[in-house]
Design brief:
binds zinc ion; five-stranded mixed beta sheet; ROK_cs; Nucleotidyltransferase, domain 5; ROK; ATPase_NBD; alpha/beta; 312 residues; ROK family protein; 12 strands; 2 domains
Length: 312
């Protein structure tokens, strides 16, 4: 029997780590989720990854490679974490690829998690087959990524597409210490905070979406402000890069039914200078997008087979 080249994709997030075991068409054959010991240091996080991969291998057989996506600035070529937020203790400077390769004895690729999300959607989700596309991840924070000519565009330091932290989106204080970033309007935390500002009521972003579905005016206003910010980001990217397709992912995208309408109405009032229409859609891979994308990147990097189906 010919062995199928299985690849594990890992999405190491601030609170949980998601593992998917994928086959050649990027179909997920098995998955598991573990808490991320983000405050316990790099060794604890790497051990979590090693144990998760080994568990999938025990259950499903050997894998040909591992791809891992994680938050922060990533040295993709060197396999190292360049910078990470305070929510990941001791993570900056860690050479993830060297450690995992030695422990697991397979090739490993490291990528920023939002880049992995977009690559996943481009390989087998909402951006399948698009040559140029922008990804915006609306989660606890706001991240961005760009594919140009079918390849991730990382920029010189790996931060290309980080639309969450450029100025021009109001004047509220951002988690990064500066003011007026998209993250202050459209992250999960920002939606909860702004609803509280409007009403004095303490709820989370999912509750705000539920309230908007029920016609709550303050919830609708909060999501309209977030949607206008997302539309403005799409217009910036369209104007600078001539990229007119946008995929939105992250936990806040679950509110797309009550958020997307505001994005579209803001776009309808401000067509890009070039005249091309911006197409903005929700991701299709949900919470598995970054893990699937990390697996797809490993297939690409190590020239493993990809068959049609999900892969575009
Ligand atoms: Zn910021």
């Amino acid at each position: 029997m010919t062995a199928v080249a299985q690849v594990v994709g890992v999405d190491l997030g601030g609170t949980k780590t998601r593992f998917v075991l994928t086959c050649e068409d990027l179909t997920v054959r098995a998955g598991l989720t573990r808490p991320t010991p983000a405050l316990d240091g790099a060794d604890a996080m790497l051990t979590t990854v090693v144990e998760g991969v080994r568990e999938l291998v025990r259950a499903r057989g050997p894998v040909a490679a591992v791809g891992i996506g994680t938050a922060g600035v990533v040295d993709h070529a060197g396999g190292r974490i360049v910078a990470a937020s305070d929510s990941f203790s001791g993570w900056a400077g860690t050479n993830v690829v060297d450690v995992l390769r030695a422990e697991l004895d397979v090739p490993v690729v490291l990528e920023n998690d939002v880049n992995a999300f977009l690559y996943g959607e481009r390989s087998g989700g909402a951006a399948r087959g698009l040559r140029d596309v922008m990804g915006i991840s609306l989660g606890t924070g706001v991240g961005g990524a760009i594919v140009l000519d079918g390849q991730l565009f990382r920029g010189r330091l790996g931060g290309a597409g980080e639309i969450g932290h450029v100025p021009g989106f109001g004047d509220e204080m951002c988690t990064c210490g500066q003011r007026g970033h998209l993250e202050t309007l459209a992250s999960g935390r920002a939606i909860a905070r702004r609803y509280r500002q409007h009403t004095g009521v303490d709820v989370d972003a999912a509750d705000v979406a539920g309230l908007a579905r029920g016609g709550d005016p303050a919830a609708t206003r909060t999501l309209a402000e977030a949607g206008q910010g997302v539309a403005q980001a799409a217009l910036m990217v369209a104007g600078i890069l001539d990229v007119h397709d946008v995929v939105v992912g992250g936990g806040v995208a679950q509110a797309w039914d009550v958020l997307g309408v505001h994005v579209r109405s803001a776009l309808a009032q401000a067509e890009p200078v070039g005249g091309a229409t911006i197409t903005i859609r929700r991701g299709e891979l949900g919470g598995d997008a970054a893990a699937i994308g990390a697996a797809a990147l490993a297939r690409c990097r190590f020239a493993l087979p990809v068959t049609s189906g999900r892969a575009g």
